[in-house]
Amino acid sequence: MCETHTLNNYKKIEKSEILEEIIDIKNDKKIKNMFDLANKRYKKILKECAPYILSEDKSQEIDSVVEKAHRDITGY
User: Fold this and answer.
1) Every domain of the chain and the residues it spans
2) How far apart are CA 60 and CA 46, in angstroms?
3) CA gyration radius, the chain
4) How far, rounded to the nearest angstrom, does the alpha carbon of residue 65 sit from its chain's CA centroid?
5) What is the 3-state secondary structure (H, E, C) of 7-43?
6) Is the Cβ–Cβ distance between 33 and 22 less than 8 Å?
7) Residue 21: how many CB atoms within 10 A of its CB?
8) Sign, Cα dihedral of 51, 52, 55, 58
9) pTM for the whole structure
10) H or E segment at 47?
Protein backbone atom coordinates (compact mmCIF):
# COMPACT_ATOMS: atom_id res chain seq x y z
CA MET A 1 0.00 0.00 0.00
CA CYS A 2 2.87 2.29 -0.73
CA GLU A 3 1.08 4.02 -3.58
CA THR A 4 -1.58 6.65 -2.86
CA HIS A 5 -3.78 5.19 -5.60
CA THR A 6 -3.73 1.76 -3.94
CA LEU A 7 -4.46 3.19 -0.51
CA ASN A 8 -7.39 5.27 -1.79
CA ASN A 9 -8.91 2.29 -3.58
CA TYR A 10 -8.40 0.10 -0.52
CA LYS A 11 -10.32 2.61 1.56
CA LYS A 12 -13.17 2.53 -0.97
CA ILE A 13 -13.32 -1.24 -0.92
CA GLU A 14 -12.95 -1.47 2.85
CA LYS A 15 -15.96 0.78 3.37
CA SER A 16 -18.03 -0.74 0.60
CA GLU A 17 -21.77 -0.88 1.20
CA ILE A 18 -21.65 -4.59 0.40
CA LEU A 19 -19.77 -5.17 3.64
CA GLU A 20 -21.86 -2.81 5.74
CA GLU A 21 -24.70 -5.18 6.49
CA ILE A 22 -25.92 -8.71 6.06
CA ILE A 23 -29.63 -9.10 5.46
CA ASP A 24 -31.74 -12.03 6.63
CA ILE A 25 -33.76 -12.51 3.44
CA LYS A 26 -36.52 -14.55 5.09
CA ASN A 27 -37.23 -11.92 7.72
CA ASP A 28 -36.00 -8.92 5.68
CA LYS A 29 -33.93 -7.49 8.51
CA LYS A 30 -30.31 -6.56 9.14
CA ILE A 31 -28.38 -9.16 11.08
CA LYS A 32 -24.89 -7.68 11.53
CA ASN A 33 -22.23 -6.12 9.40
CA MET A 34 -19.36 -8.14 7.96
CA PHE A 35 -16.82 -6.58 10.31
CA ASP A 36 -18.81 -7.61 13.40
CA LEU A 37 -19.12 -11.17 12.08
CA ALA A 38 -15.41 -11.37 11.30
CA ASN A 39 -14.50 -10.02 14.74
CA LYS A 40 -16.82 -12.54 16.41
CA ARG A 41 -15.28 -15.38 14.41
CA TYR A 42 -11.75 -14.16 15.23
CA LYS A 43 -12.49 -14.11 18.97
CA LYS A 44 -14.06 -17.59 18.79
CA ILE A 45 -10.97 -18.99 17.04
CA LEU A 46 -8.65 -17.42 19.64
CA LYS A 47 -10.77 -18.82 22.47
CA GLU A 48 -11.11 -22.36 21.10
CA CYS A 49 -7.71 -23.01 19.53
CA ALA A 50 -4.86 -24.39 21.56
CA PRO A 51 -1.55 -22.64 21.12
CA TYR A 52 0.82 -24.32 18.68
CA ILE A 53 3.97 -25.52 20.38
CA LEU A 54 7.01 -26.05 18.22
CA SER A 55 9.29 -28.93 19.16
CA GLU A 56 12.73 -27.98 20.45
CA ASP A 57 14.58 -29.58 17.52
CA LYS A 58 12.45 -27.71 14.97
CA SER A 59 12.91 -24.48 16.89
CA GLN A 60 16.70 -24.92 16.86
CA GLU A 61 16.63 -25.75 13.15
CA ILE A 62 14.69 -22.57 12.39
CA ASP A 63 17.08 -20.53 14.55
CA SER A 64 20.09 -21.88 12.65
CA VAL A 65 18.48 -21.09 9.28
CA VAL A 66 17.68 -17.55 10.40
CA GLU A 67 21.18 -17.04 11.78
CA LYS A 68 22.75 -18.29 8.52
CA ALA A 69 20.50 -15.99 6.48
CA HIS A 70 21.43 -13.08 8.73
CA ARG A 71 25.15 -13.81 8.28
CA ASP A 72 24.69 -14.14 4.49
CA ILE A 73 22.88 -10.81 4.28
CA THR A 74 24.87 -8.74 6.77
CA GLY A 75 28.26 -10.40 6.54
CA TYR A 76 28.49 -11.00 10.32
Assistant:
1) 17-74
2) 27
3) 22
4) 25
5) HHHHHHHHCCHHHHCCEECCCCEECCCHHHHHHHHHH
6) yes
7) 13
8) negative
9) 0.38
10) helix 34-48
